[in-house]
Backbone:
């Protein structure tokens, strides 16, 4: 019995408060969020049918039912697409015999040729496949062989580098991991990573249980470096075509800014 769809529905249902969808507050609840019958009512389907979906006993919901449930759960476009992907999983070759993932030679050469710009390539599971010296100088965790999810949740030095937005950053990282792996939550390598982090980090365990899905492509990183001080850097995450979810991550500063001068100083050091 495939329970991936049911796990997602249950997690998202527990995040929706009755008042968010116009339902009266009927007092104390045993569990947070909407009851199954409330969600079924909002979606216009029977409680029994919704229960079968959440328990994995119905594997073929219609597009209309999925759309109605997405509206009831107030899912955005990306979360709705993830819901449909869970309900319509496509056959993928087994990952059990996969070789160690690498960055393509051309991408590796490109990243290492950037002497002024911190950049690295990460796999779909956030393993660093190649990092240039500027990236490692910016943050020692950006080093080939490291896993950025483990670094974020298990290495206090990474948290200490961020001046602000840490909670948003790690929540986005977990949601980004779910976006990259999609419905393939039974991938052995993913199971190993999630299992390890769930045992060692309560924070990761809580965020993973939310089932948030969000692709992060760009934004700001507000750092403090032990040698050059505060850095306000933009980060871009660019998909590497022809790969299974690899991303090229690049940091850059506004031209002429103090952060640009600090990056130049970091390179000199």
Residues:
């Amino acid at each position: 019995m495939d329970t991936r769809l049911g796990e997602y529905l249950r997690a998202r249902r527990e995040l929706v408060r009755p008042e968010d969808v116009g339902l009266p507050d009927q007092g104390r609840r045993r569990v947070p969020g909407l009851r199954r019958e409330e969600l079924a009512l909002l979606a216009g389907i029977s409680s029994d049918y919704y229960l079968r979906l959440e328990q994995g006993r119905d594997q073929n919901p219609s597009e209309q039912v999925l759309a109605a449930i997405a509206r009831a759960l107030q899912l955005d476009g990306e979360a709705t697409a993830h819901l449909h992907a869970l309900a319509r999983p496509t056959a993928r070759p087994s990952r059990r015999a996969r070789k160690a993932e690498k960055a393509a030679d051309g991408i590796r050469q490109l990243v290492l040729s950037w002497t002024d710009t911190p950049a690295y390539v990460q796999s779909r599971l956030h393993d660093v496949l190649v990092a240039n010296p500027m990236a490692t100088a910016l943050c020692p965790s950006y080093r080939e062989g490291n896993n950025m999810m483990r670094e974020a949740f298990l290495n206090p030095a990474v948290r200490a580098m961020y001046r602000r937005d840490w909670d948003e950053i790690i929540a986005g990282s977990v949601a980004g991991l779910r976006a990259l792996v999609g419905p393939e939550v039974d991938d052995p390598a993913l199971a190993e990573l999630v299992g390890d982090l769930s045992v060692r980090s309560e924070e990761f365990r809580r965020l993973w249980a939310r089932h948030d899905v969000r692709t992060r492509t760009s934004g700001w990183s507000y750092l403090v470096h032990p040698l050059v001080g505060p850095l306000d850097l933009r980060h871009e995450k660019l998909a590497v075509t022809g790969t299974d979810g690899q991303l090229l991550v690049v940091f850059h500063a506004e031209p002429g800014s103090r952060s640009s001068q600090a990056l130049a100083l970091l390179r000199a050091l």
